[in-house]
Structures are given as C-alpha cells and as structure tokens.
Amino acid sequence: MTRRKQVLVIGFGRDHCPEHAYKVAYQVGAEVARQGALLVTGGLGGVMEASSRGAKDGGGFVIGIIPQDSKDQANDFCDAVIATGIGFARDFITAYSADAIIVVGGGAGTLIEVAAGYQKGIPIVAVKQTGGVADRIVDTYIDDRKIAPIIGEDTAERAVTRALSILKSAQLSE
Q1: Residues 20, 105: Cα–Cα separation, whole Å
Q2: How far apart are CA 70 and CA 159, in angstroms?
Q3: Three-state secondary structure along 36-91?
Q4: Are 128 and 138 in contact (CB under 8 A)?
Q5: pLDDT score recorded for residue 1
Q6: What is the four-CA torsion angle of 18, 35, 136, 88, rounded to 10 degrees?
Q7: CA 102 → CA 5, 139, 160, distances in Å?
Q8: Quick one: pLDDT band at residue 43, thresholds 50, 70, 90?
C-alpha cells in the first residue's frame, strides 16, 4: 500500500495572521484535501487553523503537531493531535513529518520550519503576496549550498499542485 503524501502548511500564528493570509491558507487546506494528501500543521491558530478548516471542509484528514503537552490546545479542525510538550522545538517535528511544505506568510517560527525542511531537501513552495516570511524567501535559496529553491506560486491551487508534482517527479526518478 502506498502512503499518502503529507503536506505541511506553515505561516502566521493566530495573533499575527492578516485576513488575506487566512483566506489563502483556507484555500491551500481545501486543495490539499481535494488532491488526496494529508494536511499536517502546527495545530494552533492563524494559518494552521485556516488550512485545517479548509482541509476538513474539503473532506480531508488533518494532523496537528502542537508544542503543548495537552491535546486540547489544538484547533478544532485537527483529526489527530500529537501533543509534543517540547515547545517550539516541535518545529523540527512538523518539518520532518512533511513530504512537501507550503508557506503562507509567517514569522520566526515559520522560518525555523523552512530552514529545517530546506536542510532535509523537502520541497518548499511559498504562496506569493501573503506577507511575512513567504514574501521574503520566495524564489530564493536559504543559503549558499543551494539545496533546493523556494518555489513561488501565485495561488493556493498552484502551490499545492506544484508541491505534489515535485513529489511525483522525484518518485518517478527513483
């Protein structure tokens, strides 16, 4: 049996999430579900909640990996909650759990997840014009090693399609 692909959606937390980024994240989550992948998030508010809501509304499955030690801290749209109890060191767990990463806005925590994914060679797609980290890293490399470019896409649908197509191409070349 083939394991379903896991797409991590990262970005602004509840306190810093502009309405536009929330709407885009919702669309990303819905598209992840529509394309048959599992949604993974940090399980809290903002982009994490919006993408989780979108995936649930689209009939998808949502895994929330939260920094707290109590599952009841997760947003209401998580089907499965992994309560790490390790604070934001959980950013490495979220990144390493991803087959692909989609960035919608974001701040320092988002940048940690991007850097962890980048070091592992996980494909990363940033949705353009969502603010924060996404706009700063789009169409660049994180460092001089040029492990993999951070690919920019204009829409939620294109971001998910691009991330999953990279995974299919890699699978075919194996």
Answers
A1: 10
A2: 32
A3: CCEEEECCCCCHHHHHHHHHHHCCCCEEEEECCCCHHHCCCCCCEEEECCCHHHHH
A4: yes
A5: 66
A6: 70
A7: 13, 13, 7
A8: very high
Domain 6-173 has CATH 2.40.30.170: no
Domain boundaries, the chain: 6-173
Give counts: helices (H), strands (E), the chain.
6, 7
pTM higher than the cut 0.90: yes
Q: Mean pLDDT across the stretch 138-167?
A: 96
What's residue 174's pLDDT? 60
Per-residue model confidence (pLDDT) at position 170:
77
Contact 112, 94 (CB under 8 A): no
Q: Mean pLDDT, to the nearest integer, of 42-68?
A: 98
> What distance in Å separates the CA atoms of residue 167 and residue 6, rounded to the nearest whole number?
10
